[in-house]
Request: fold
Amino acid sequence: MLKLHSSARATLARRPWLLIWAASVFVVALLVTAHADAASAIPRLKSGRPDFSGIWQTTSAADFDLEPHSARKDAPPGAGVVEGDQIPYLPAALEQKKRNFAARTSTDPRLKCWTLGTPRGIYYPEPFQIFQRDRDLTLVFQFGHSVRTINTNGTLHPEVTDNEFWLGDSRGKWEGDTLVVDVKDFNDETWLDRAGNFHSEALHVVERWKFLDANTIEYAATLEDPKVFSRPWNISVILHRHREKNFQLIEDYCYTLDYDQYYPVPGKEGTR
Amino acid sequence: MRFDVNERSVVRFIGLSLVLAMAPVLVTAQGAGTQLASGPAVASAPAAQPAPPKPPQGEAIRWEKTVPVIESGKWAGKRLADGQPDVEGNWANTIANQNNWIDPQAGEPGGRPPKSARNERAPSRVSDPADGQVPFQPWASTIQQDYFANFRNPVKPEYIEPFARCAPGGVPKSFTWHGYEIRQYPGYVLFLFNSGTRIVHLDGKPHLPESIKLWNADSRGHWEGNTLVVDVTNNNAKARLGRSGEFASDKVHIVERYIFDNDGKRYNYVATITDPTVYTRPWTATIPARRYGLEQGDEADGWHYEGEIANRPGKPPFDEYYERICVENNGGFGQVATSQAK
Reply:
């Protein structure tokens, strides 16, 4: 409890209205707290499902390295986002990961602007936008402006099993207010981060999307790949809503930058 | 930070050499008239169900000769919950692909001349001026004709149009390519093309700062009855209008009118294109389009309509699209970047 200093006691004695003022502040504070609870009610579609529409981005260092790491030239430090800290690689895969790490500044597919894949696109440090209908969620990633559809219309993965997609095939269902997405049918071209963590085409991801409040999503994923990992493992990151005035995605077709120089803007006095 | 400079240089050098060496071969293959050889390929996985019979090769592109008249006016069709006219679904142009902007059914530049007379083919996509010509200033006309003349033998990198390298088709070329999908949301209309994605803002945000230039430009739209009106700025002017080499500058201002027929089955894309640095006057482009889908009785044809049948046992057929990722996006410049050994 607060102990009033003797001079403060003297002040109160001289100015009793201060007590009334303090009580009023307390009541107003209570009201504000109650209002904040109401405001944190999550956005919902007409159907009552949570509405994840908006522009989102993580502030975590997950894309630099999913595992705990000290600062290095090419990455800020990070405590990691893997449950249990370490990714459970099979022995041969661990050797591959070490080779990837050693060559990361030249072989990360991101450097060639290849599609980031799932889940990497979610925690890559550029914004992505979710557009949502009852039947699906459409994720547009600023990086490459690639588009991922999460079907929520009760359809199943394609029957054929040899599809290989950059972003996988995503089928979602609702467990209460949590969107659970089963993702499979991947290719083996994407990495999981800049540190060379990787997977094979046998990757299977189960995502869980849940609002913590109206402007914050908890994104968790379980990754399973019997060719690369000894057991399924989990990651979790927080996604924040972009609320800057007039914020929008700005297309980043960065693979075009390699040939940009050949297409100058034509002009009367030659190209510029 | 994004690129390793040395790696980029090497990729660019080898890639360019390969593209230049391969270009005549590629163009010859395109001339054979196969469905998918006419531009960047989209990754297509084996179909999830027995594929419907393919139409004979060369028949896949519809060849309508005329542009229907669709008047701007009231919308009497279905609406979405937010009040927008419901135009969601799969669409494609009805005239021809991107080969030739002003003579859409004449084939690609430098190809076999068409046997038909000009008046037996679809009209120019330039609906104003009446002569169907893009009103280029003389210097610009010279550049366009240079692009046209060198399309089949691209001896300089700039003769290979960026679209062939999986760059977005841009505005308005994207509407003359494969079928595409429209998805709508409160505040937005989304165009999903095989090569590029366009987000049209209906939310009244101001345009991006002028110094930002984009392949698919910056789009602000609103509905007027049956017509989606979109103001398009911030164009990087790198995407060409057709293989025939028409272009604008990065000062171009485009006002698009998507005029939807009340039956929901057709629309005309009518765009006014203003750029005093390149043209002698504003001009108008018109591209007719129709809806595709199972409910229309359409079968997937690998061009206008590439939907897959969704896997939902015991329920009526329902179409969906797999991911649209241009193969070359992920192949590096000139298709030379390879994955590491595994």
Observations:
- Helices of chain B lie at 5-31, 138-149.
- The first strand of chain B starts at residue 89 and ends at 93.
- The first helix of chain B runs from residue 5 to 31.
- Residues 1-60, 329-342 of chain B have pLDDT under 50 and may be disordered.
